[in-house]
């Protein structure tokens, strides 16, 4: 690890002044890893955990009839354990519980989790060419060992997989990111946060360099409780997805009124499978329609030498997620005038 300056921001204003020329750290479970590997070498690191003292909402979970608000400094384990999230947003609780290890989830912040960087081994090892790490150097994964790599959203410059779980859950819940910058506060759909690699894989998000994530905002919806996240990986715990699926459904009887589907472990960004959603609308939810939707979800897949198995695996994972979500029963009514408080 290279030497660096370390500061603590005591206010949002201090943090905003720092972000343009420093690297922000909260839980540090992604950044510190890459600093140790020499993949990133920031000159200055600014700890934002102290912002809770000025703005308590950054570390607070609020759940009411309007929806769910998660402060960016809330730890993954806190959200995972929240009884209201488990009852009314099970896809989100699932995605958090299946990520990393309990120790890491206790450290990692929700804002940092959304922005985590790829675990591509060619990105992590500085001796390999990687367009994401060193623009213009090439992509060693294209003709290398690419079992873990993406089959959706790829380009000739990068096939690295987005590693997270929570982002897929947020996609199907139509969540927004609250961003705070010098110009004030703005909301951005989670679906617009991450960039597909195209010819510029080193540009990973659409956030401005002087903005901070301050909250994740999830609206109330008729499909949030009928939702599920299914993940398949090489180990039962502490492993990234080979394929995963987040599903949220609004049913009328046994027919699909609305469907929301996002895929993980198979794409370069959190991947909304809109063709699969269209394939389900108006149809009964059963094995036949679920499999037809799964085929539609991977119609545009581009496989490489070692990762073609992800297409049938991803299809099977999606079928399981759809059928499991369809079988869910509504949660019991909330108390205290219909409002659940964190």
UniProtKB/TrEMBL annotation:
One of its GO terms (molecular function) is FAD binding. Pfam families: CO_deh_flav_C, FAD_binding_5. The keyword Hydrolase does not apply. Gene3D superfamilies: 3.30.465.10, CO dehydrogenase flavoprotein, C-terminal domain, Uridine Diphospho-n-acetylenolpyruvylglucosamine Reductase, domain 2. Keywords: FAD, Flavoprotein. InterPro entries: CO_DH_flav_C, CO_DH_flav_C_dom_sf, Diverse_Substr_Oxidored, FAD-bd_PCMH, FAD-bd_PCMH-like_sf, FAD-bd_PCMH_sub1, FAD-bd_PCMH_sub2, Mopterin_DH_FAD-bd. Residues 1-223 form the FAD-binding PCMH-type domain. This is FAD-binding molybdopterin dehydrogenase. It comes from Nitrospirillum viridazoti CBAmc.
